[in-house]
């Protein structure tokens, strides 16, 4: 298993390089002129030209790429072309809020989704099953911005239960915890549907497998069959689904973070790409790629832990 | 410390969970819409930069709320030579920086010299005039010498770009000045900045040299100020309503009537805000090269309806390029302004050869009148869509390309559009005209490609005039000229409006560079 | 575990075969029945009917619209007819510019559906092609799947942002971005399904008979895998529309005065406190379209995939 993990790590290298290249090329062809941004609204043309030269934007593309790779090799992500802040510190500041938001949204939505899906599978065909499935289909069909806006409108403004602007502190502070509520609620709600559906169908699938049939034939109760044999096996695709959903979740986080003024990576990436902040955009792309590779690595390991067939 | 504000208690669950938010009454949260790229005074031209810098540092002179009265600030007094070439400032000797170090005339001269140093690459260096030298002969005197008179100099020196900062801190931080740290003499001191999120500043305890327009000359009454960015306009309104913020100058127009009706919110409005939103024509482009077409577009747009319907009567419809209240505005302009008259617009277009085709669109020599307008997103997109709908009624099909503000600046320096949008702050007619209509300022900020030698001469004459009448006369001529040529489509004059919690004592809004709170010395919680 | 499976193993409900025999699932008589069975499912019937109505409404927008969708009026923020202050002139009310919401919805649905169809078609075609090739040829498999991994590291929204920055605002970059970002998913699923098919005896048999690779690919693999892949692709339609609307909400979509549902919702959010219908109506329409697509897709899957029938 260890060698498999190592092998996986090695295989991640070309992926990482591809991401590096892609990220570089992407920001290269963006027409927005960062020198104009730095110079500001009232700058004259020669001021802009001078700034462009100073920022190295007049260098050939390959030179820029080479220096980019060199810097990446030593972990130097450069400085923001706009604020001149170190990209690492910008990413560091934005990483935790996003992780917090993602974990906060999964912490409640995954168990809820798994429970709903399992229940639906157990009572398949019943009214409850149909209701749960209808609910989860509705859940995956609701636009996240609508959920967020409604959450603000009712829980924030009308009933004034939760605050909805910014992140006053980390989650373990009272203020930070309260502020995390609405964004995590909105973001998590898009995950319930897929998790519930996947759990239901994979529980149903597993129930048909031979060893489950055997267990049932041995006279074990249905609940025991499901909990002991069904659910664990059924969770495998759910785990992989969550791995896949990280990208989707991140997309949702962009919207959630914008609506709730949450200072995370999604907003950072959008802001950077929109403002042609090459270095920050590259940095966020790196972080996303790293995050994706890590999550999938973890998923693979979990997969092998959960699936006895792979464990061998 | 007073108990948790009532509004916070409204968060029922918070209270129920015994997680009452520990907010001290002396801490103030200001809600705003966007961040600046950094906070280095001579290098940032953003309104969002100025509003922070005014609080963190001081300028040599201040400006009162009326936008006309120059107040002593770091300079307690000044003399201007008869030829208007030499300004001698007497600098206060009791001022100190946030780190406790005393400030001297040398710091003032160094800061101003840094502004004009080509190495600094300040985009607004031209505001300083044609500088000969800026020196500090002793610790309380600064001599500012010019090669040519610059009638607006004192107004320009009141802008945030010339804010005095500590040389030593700057030398330590270098390009990180205004990014990771700041050291100024303002009523507040830098604590932290999280880009796109918030700026936190704390009270400068020793401060007592505020400008005379404030009753409280210092120190500031609030201990801590957090400038929180909330990008969503509607959220800013409700954040203020629910007490999650105490002040916001960035409320969408639709929100003000609700805020005025809310028992916990006051709204102040200042009419002498000099901020005008307009759409400019790239006059070198074929479609809008004909002055008749530009006049027709001016006549086809109903600014009054827009001000009422789109902006809920909160703005003043604009027909002139600068507000009539601004210094050196020429009232004889009033009769020539192009007001809503779609029939006349249609007639002008016919006259210019743009006739209606079978689709109801204007056409000339096989070309359809479809000018492209580049626009910001948000409020500006609403405005340009309203212009689009108005123009559709006279057969002009305006194309709109909305984009993010940061991309917009680059795009607006190109030649790839017929119209562009812009809102800008100014202190006088001369300030506005010098910025936009000098041929040297092509392609930006003179995005119209207005290239007229006579205008250039008149602008120089105005800016170097040594008496008010000459200056006003020169600028009046330019005003007439550009209005006659309809190089802009003025849309509305934007008043400064600030919504604030009734927990705060009433105050007057400032207008300098759109920074409505200016030094923040007026902000006080009612105990 | 296998070294090539950095990618997620095929999900059970879409995988070609774990136990059943795919080759027999879609035999002719079964095909004849599926549509009838689909229409028997009341929810699916309703969903399909709704989709059909929306599509018809979108196609005949110029006929059905009561107003020019771009033209404004002085009556701004008029609520729908059934509410106080509403009037029959604008039965779904007007937006912040005084434009007729019903007319804008028709044109908006047009664009929204177009974006969805184009993106799903684009991503589905290239994705399944890559997935099938990947399953068919073990040598190019790792290359294709690594490329998919790279693509997958860019969430649709980021990809769209980047493309919009490069190509300018409009629906083309959105369609391309959504298309590209559905390629890896489609490829993975297609690959999973195809691997299932490849394990079937008839492939071995075909090889034994001496069929060429192209014949095998075309005749056996594509034909046997395509139905399952199509189902998966149709399942993506709802999600693609949803992401498309979200992108338009972020301001990356169609240029005004064209209307798009996500854009309409986005423009309405500033009025949420005062005239909620401006944001709520287009959001609800998006919800209805996506919900119908999802319900119909689910039913289709259930009907076509007998293994999942309870």
From TrEMBL, chain A:
Looking at the record, the residues that make up the ABC transmembrane type-1 domain are 95-303
Matches recorded under CDD domains: TM_PBP2
Instruction: List the InterPro entries.
Output: BPD_transp_1_N, MetI-like, MetI-like_sf
- Transmembrane annotation, as ranges: 9-30, 101-123, 135-156, 176-196, 234-260, 280-306
Indicate whether Transmembrane helix appears among the record's keywords. yes
Q: How does it sit in the membrane?
A: Multi-pass membrane protein
GO terms classed as biological process: transmembrane transport
A GO cellular component annotated for this chain's UniProt record is: plasma membrane
The alphabetical list of record keywords is: Cell membrane, Membrane, Transmembrane, Transmembrane helix, Transport
Cellular compartment(s): Cell membrane
Does Transport count among this protein's keywords?
yes
Protein family per UniProt = Belongs to the binding-protein-dependent transport system permease family.
Output the PANTHER family linked to this UniProt entry.
Answer: DIPEPTIDE TRANSPORT SYSTEM PERMEASE PROTEIN DPPB-RELATED (PTHR43163:SF6)
Query: What is the name attached to this protein's record?
Result: ABC transporter permease
Organism this protein belongs to: Antarcticimicrobium sediminis
């Amino acid at each position: 298993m260890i060698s498999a993990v190592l092998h996986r790590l090695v295989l991640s290298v070309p992926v990482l390089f591809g991401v590096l290249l892609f990220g570089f090329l992407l920001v290269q062809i963006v027409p927005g002129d960062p020198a104009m941004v730095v110079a500001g609204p009232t700058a004259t043309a020669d001021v802009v030209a001078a700034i462009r030269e100073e920022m190295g934007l007049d260098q050939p593309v390959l030179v820029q790429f080479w220096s980019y790779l060199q810097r990446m090799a030593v972990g130097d992500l450069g400085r923001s072309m706009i604020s001149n802040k170190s990209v690492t510190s910008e990413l560091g500041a934005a990483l935790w809020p996003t992780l917090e938001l993602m974990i906060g949204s999964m912490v409640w939505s995954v168990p809820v989704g798994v429970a709903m899906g399992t229940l639906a599978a157990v009572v398949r065909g019943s009214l409850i099953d149909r209701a749960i499935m209808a609910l989860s289909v509705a859940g995956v069909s609701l636009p996240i911005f609508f959920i967020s806006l409604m959450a603000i409108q009712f829980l924030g403004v009308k009933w004034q239960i939760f605050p909805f602007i910014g992140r006053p502190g980390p989650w373990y502070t009272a203020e930070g915890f309260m502020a995390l509520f609405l964004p995590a609620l909105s973001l998590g709600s898009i995950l319930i549907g897929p998790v519930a559906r996947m759990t239901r169908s994979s529980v149903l699938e597993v129930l048909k497998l031979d060893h489950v049939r055997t267990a049932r034939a041995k006279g074990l109760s249905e609940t025991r069959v499901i909990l002991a044999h069904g659910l664990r096996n059924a969770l495998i695709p759910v785990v992989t689904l969550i791995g896949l959903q990280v990208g989707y979740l991140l997309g949702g986080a962009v919207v959630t973070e914008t609506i709730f003024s949450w200072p995370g990576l999604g907003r950072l990436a959008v802001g950077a790409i929109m403002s042609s902040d090459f270095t920050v955009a590259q940095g966020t792309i790196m972080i996303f790629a790293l995050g994706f590779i890590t999550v999938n690595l973890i998923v693979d390991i979990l997969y092998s832990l959960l699936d006895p067939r792979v464990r061998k | 410390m007073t108990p948790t504000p009532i509004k916070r208690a409204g968060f029922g669950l918070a209270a129920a969970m015994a997680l009452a938010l520990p907010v001290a009454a002396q801490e103030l949260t200001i809600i705003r819409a966007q961040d600046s790229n950094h906070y280095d005074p001579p290098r940032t031209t953003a309104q969002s930069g100025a509003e922070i810098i005014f609080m963190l540092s001081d300028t040599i002179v201040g400006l009162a709320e009326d936008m006309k009265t120059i107040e002593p600030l770091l300079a307690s007094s000044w003399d201007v030579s008869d030829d208007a070439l030499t300004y001698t400032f007497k600098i206060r000797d009791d001022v100190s920086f946030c780190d406790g170090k005393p400030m001297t005339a040398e710091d003032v001269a160094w800061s101003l010299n840094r502004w004009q140093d080509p190495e600094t690459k300040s985009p607004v260096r031209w505001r300083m005039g044609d500088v000969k030298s800026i020196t500090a002969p002793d610790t309380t005197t600064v001599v500012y010498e010019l090669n040519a008179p610059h009638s607006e100099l004192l107004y320009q020196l009141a802008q945030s770009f010339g804010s005095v900062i500590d040389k030593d801190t700057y030398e330590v931080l270098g390009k990180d000045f205004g990014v990771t740290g700041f050291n100024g003499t303002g009523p507040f001191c830098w604590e932290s900045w999280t880009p796109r999120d918030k700026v936190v500043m704390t009270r400068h305890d020793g401060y007592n040299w505020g400008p005379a327009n404030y009753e409280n000359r210092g120190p500031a009454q609030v201990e801590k100020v957090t400038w929180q960015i909330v990008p969503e306009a509607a959220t800013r309104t409700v954040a203020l309503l629910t007490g999650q913020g105490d002040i916001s100058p960035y409320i969408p127009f639709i929100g003000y009537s609700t805020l005025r009706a809310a028992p916990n919110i006051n709204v102040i409005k200042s009419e002498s805000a000099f901020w005008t939103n307009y759409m400019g024509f790239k006059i070198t482009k074929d479609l809008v090269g004909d002055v008749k077409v530009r006049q027709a577009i001016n006549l086809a747009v109903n600014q009054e309806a827009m001000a009422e319907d789109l902006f809920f009567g909160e703005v003043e419809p604009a027909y002139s390029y600068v507000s009539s209240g601004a210094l050196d505005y020429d009232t004889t302009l009033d009769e020539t302004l192009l007001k809503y008259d779609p029939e006349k617009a249609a007639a002008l277009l016919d006259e210019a050869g743009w006739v209606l085709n079978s689709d109801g669109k204007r056409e000339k020599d096989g070309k359809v009148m479809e000018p492209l307008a580049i626009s910001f997103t948000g409020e500006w997109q609403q405005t340009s869509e309203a212009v689009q709908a108005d123009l559709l009624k006279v057969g002009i099909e305006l194309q709109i390309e909305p984009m993010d503000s940061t991309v917009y600046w680059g795009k607006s320096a190109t030649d790839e559009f017929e119209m562009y949008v812009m809102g800008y702050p100014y202190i006088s007619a001369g300030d506005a005209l010098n910025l936009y209509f000098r041929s040297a300022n092509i392609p930006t900020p003179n995005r119209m490609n207005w290239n007229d030698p006579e205008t250039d001469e008149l602008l120089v004459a105005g800016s170097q005039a040594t008496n008010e009448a000459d200056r006003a006369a020169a600028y009046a001529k330019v005003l007439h000229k550009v209005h006659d040529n309809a190089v802009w489509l003025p849309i509305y004059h934007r008043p400064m409006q600030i919504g604030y919690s009734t927990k705060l004592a009433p105050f007057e809004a400032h207008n300098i560079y759109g920074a409505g709170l200016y030094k923040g010395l007026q902000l006080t919680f009612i105990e | 575990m296998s070294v090539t499976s950095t990618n997620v193993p095929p999900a059970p409900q879409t995988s070609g075969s774990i136990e059943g025999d795919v080759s027999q699932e879609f035999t002719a008589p079964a095909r004849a029945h599926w549509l009838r069975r689909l229409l028997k499912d009341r929810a699916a019937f309703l969903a399909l009917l709704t989709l059909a109505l929306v599509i018809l409404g979108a196609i005949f927008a110029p006929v059905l619209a009561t107003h020019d969708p771009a033209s404004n009026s002085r009556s701004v923020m008029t609520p729908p007819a059934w509410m106080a202050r509403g009037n029959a002139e604008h039965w779904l009310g007007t937006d912040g510019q005084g434009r007729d919401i019903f007319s804008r919805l028709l044109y908006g649905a047009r664009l929204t559906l177009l974006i969805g169809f184009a993106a799903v078609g684009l991503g589905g075609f290239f994705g399944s092609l890559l997935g099938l090739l990947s399953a068919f040829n073990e040598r190019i498999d790792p290359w294709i799947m690594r490329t998919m991994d790279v693509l997958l590291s860019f969430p649709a929204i980021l990809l769209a942002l980047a493309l919009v920055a490069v190509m300018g605002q409009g629906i083309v970059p959105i369609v391309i971005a959504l298309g590209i970002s559905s390629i890896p998913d489609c490829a993975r699923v297609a690959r999973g399904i195809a691997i299932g098919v490849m394990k079937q005896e008839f492939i071995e048999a075909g090889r034994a008979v001496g069929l060429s690779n192209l014949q095998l690919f075309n005749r056996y693999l594509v034909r046997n895998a395509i139905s399952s892949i199509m189902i998966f692709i149709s399942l993506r339609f709802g999600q693609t529309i949803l992401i498309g609307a979200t992108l338009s909400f972020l301001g990356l979509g169609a240029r005004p005065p064209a209307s798009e549902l996500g854009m309409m919702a986005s423009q309405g959010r500033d009025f949420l406190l005062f005239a909620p219908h401006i944001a709520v109506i287009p959001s609800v329409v998006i919800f209805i379209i996506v919900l119908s697509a999802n319900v119909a897709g689910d039913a289709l899957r259930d009907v076509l995939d007998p293994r999942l029938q309870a």
